[in-house]
Design brief:
With 260 residues, this protein is of the alpha+beta class. The protein folds into 3 domains: 48 residues, no CATH class; 106 residues, Outer membrane lipoprotein wza domain like (Outer membrane lipoprotein wza fold like, Roll); 85 residues, wza like fold. It has 5 helices and 13 strands. The longest helix has 22 residues. The N and C termini lie close together (10 Å).
Amino acid sequence: MTRLNKSSRILTILVVILALMAGSCVPITQLRYFNDIEETGEPTVNPRTQKLIMPFDKLYIRVLSIDLQTSQIFNTTEEMRSLGYGVSSGLLGYLVDEEGNINFPFVGKINVGALTTAEAAKQIQMALSDYVANTSVIVKYVDNQVTVMGEVARQGLYPFPQDKLNIYEALSLGGGITRYGDRKNVMLIRHVDGKIMHYRLNLADSKIANKSYYYVLPNDVIIVEPLKAVSTSYSNITYSTILSTISTALAILLFAGLRP
């Protein structure tokens, strides 16, 4: 084989390597949010509707009364379950059963399913009125959780104190999307009326704020899909390592090609 032919082979290999590297490059539009921010006009309006109480939700319920004995009876009872971790640590909660009921001391079952926390507070207050007068009831969610998976810095199950939070806040719990995550292809899995719903989210589109799934609800699952242009199996290989390997390979090829 002549030196010219060897040089041609080396040049061909170099072109192939550069083509592969170019093919793995990711456009900046796939790595940033709100690509259309310059095109937006009026501010987006998305009313935050309150979450309705669902089976297996856990509720913090406090009965306020001017009578100290009444407060002690309803606020310290074996019926309440201690929740032991995260932002809910130290709070006591009632578990909503499959039919939307809670088992309240002395009163028994009270149905709070498909109610807001304010409506549930009124429902409990009415049930208590047969036993004690002049009470006020506070109802809050405790032990809210969201699962964040896929191409994020830290996959896991994360608690949060709000009734709900937006998709960007939820992703920040997991450390945000990695450079290998596809911001235009985020899956949201949600239980709605006994059905499992799947939503495809495009976080690069500012109009996402108009959508009902912009706000994440307790027990939602968020999965960030990987970019097609980058394989996550190489997530631990840095660009410097890749360039070093290519440089070494080219040096060997050049040495072999230039030998007489």
